[in-house]
Write a structure and sequence with these properties.
alpha+beta; Beta-Lactamase; Helix Hairpins; Heat Shock Protein 90; 3 domains; 5-stranded mixed sheet; 4-stranded antiparallel sheet; rod-shaped; binds adenosine-5'-diphosphate; membrane
């Protein structure tokens, strides 16, 4: 069964937190209890020493055993679960806890055994007796026998402390679990929300609504990248769609004009409104030529834009090819009184001569087409490292910033009315770009409206 990202993230967080909290609780409980047990054993040893010191002191003060002091020490010891017997140097019992109050001793022992057995089911209490000598002036003056349940035992205070400690641990565990759960849920929401946004937008885009964008930025790098990619995808699909519509509109428009003219001319001739004079027939013939040119352009486009454009490479002097092209344009140059300057350079290029020729023809032809009378066109050939560069710069109409990114697109024409006069179908630059790219080169354009345009092609010397 498929789970939502949010559910999956939340469950993972809950699972990981639970494991962490349980593990931390078990480990801290184990280590704290171990430490506490060691502390209790040391404490027991310390208490034994206090008893021994107290009994020693009572002897050294009076140089004989004081039964009252020993008794008070012994009674206090019973309360702590310790049962003492004090004997003098000859071995005679001075004071014995069990002899003093056997029932109290039994009561304390039973209480201690039952609490320890409840707390530690494996606890096997063994009644142990340790002997300590009573020394005065380096002379043994008696023995204290200290009896207790070993290896360790907890008195009521110890148990209370241990219980409080466990309660604190459990509370801290529960509190951390709750905090981790809340943080986990918030994190899952924070992670899944932008992804859900991306999904929504991607779905809208796939349904054809290319205007959809994700506005909210994410501070998670990967999600931010994903968001940007979806936005870019939407943008480029939007542009493609716009271009496709424009392309269909342009092609149908291009076809419609000559077809409509032809239709009306033919109808007029059939109905006898017009005489089939040579002029009329020439008019019809021109429209047919226009149609033919358009179909030819479409074919050319298909040829140059095909992925496996075959290049027939040879070595040739690029300067000479350009000079020849300029020479062929002489008629246009003279008619428009354009000053064309060519800056030559001795460069031998290894490329498809005919196709490179086509590129230069397209660029110079455009420069001449879109430059007014008495304008200036400069063609410059130069070398830049391992690349050959050709710049075609004119002082013509220029291209607006809005149109500049699209000039290499199929059938894109900056200004329809402008092109009506110049006759272009908007495929010259598309072909130019395809040829340059087939040679592993690049083409760039810079333009300022009403000031001029510069196209620069960059071709590797040995492409
Ligand atoms: P066309 O055959 O219409 O000239 P192109 O693909 O060669 O088609 O050019 C696309 C568009 O770019 C043209 O319609 C024109 O408006 C613009 N253009 C190309 N070169 C120039 C230039 N040198 N100066 C101004 N506009 C240009």
């Amino acid at each position: 069964m498929k789970k939502s990202l949010r559910k999956k993230l939340s469950l993972s967080y809950i699972f990981v937190t639970m494991i962490c909290v349980v593990l931390i609780s078990i480990l801290s409980n184990f280590f704290l209890n171990k430490q506490f047990k060691n502390y209790v054993i040391q404490e027991h040893e310390r208490k034994n020493q206090i008893i021994v010191t107290a009994v020693n002191q009572q002897y050294s003060t009076n140089k004989k055993h004081n039964t009252d002091v020993i008794k008070s020490v012994g009674i206090e010891a019973i309360e702590n679960g310790v049962f003492i017997t004090v004997r003098d140097a000859s071995g005679k019992t001075i004071w014995d806890a069990e002899a003093y109050d056997n029932s109290k001793c039994e009561e304390v022992k039973n209480h201690l055994t039952s609490t320890m057995e409840t707390l530690f089911p494996n606890w096997k209490g063994i009644y142990t007796k340790d002997d300590y000598n009573i020394i005065n002036n380096s002379k043994k003056v008696g023995v204290i026998e200290i009896g207790y349940y070993g290896p360790f035992y907890y008195n009521d205070n110890d148990i209370l402390y241990s219980k409080t400690l466990n309660k604190i641990l459990i509370s801290v565990g529960i509190a951390s679990l709750c905090i981790a759960l809340i943080v986990g849920l918030l994190m899952a929401k924070r992670l899944s929300k932008p992804i859900l946004n991306v999904i929504d937008t991607a779905e809208m885009i796939s349904k054809g609504d290319y205007s959809q964008r994700i506005e909210k930025k994410s501070d998670i790098e990967e999600i931010d990248k994903l968001t940007r990619s979806i936005n870019n995808l939407g943008k480029s699909l939007y542009e493609q769609e716009k271009l496709r519509k424009r392309l269909t509109r342009d092609v149908s428009h291009e076809l419609r004009t000559p077809l409509t003219t032809l239709q009306s001319h033919m109808e007029a001739l059939i109905d006898g409104i017009w005489e089939p004079t040579t002029d009329r027939l020439i008019g019809c013939h021109e429209e047919i030529l226009r149609l033919n040119r358009l179909v030819g352009d479409l074919e050319k486009l298909n040829l140059y834009e095909s992925e496996n454009l075959i290049l027939n490479k040879t070595k040739f002097k690029l300067g000479e090819v350009i000079k020849n092209i300029v020479f062929n344009f002489e008629k246009e140059i003279l008619t428009k009184e354009i000053e064309l300057i060519f800056y030559d350079k001795e460069i031998v290029l290894y490329a498809d001569k005919d196709k490179v020729r086509q590129v230069i023809v397209n660029l110079i032809s455009n420069a001449l087409k879109y430059t007014q009378k008495s304008g200036k066109v400069e063609v410059k050939l130069f070398q830049d490292g391992l690349y050959t560069k050709v710049s075609v710069k004119d002082s013509g109409l220029g291209i607006s910033e809005k149109d500049l990114p699209y000039v290499f697109e199929r059938f894109y024409r900056v200004d329809k009315s402008r092109n009506k006069l110049t006759g272009g179908a908007g495929i010259g630059l598309t072909i130019t770009k395809s040829i340059v790219e087939a040679h592993m080169g690049t083409i760039n354009v810079e333009s300022t409206i009403n000031q001029g345009t510069e196209f620069i092609i960059k071709l590797p010397m040995n492409s």
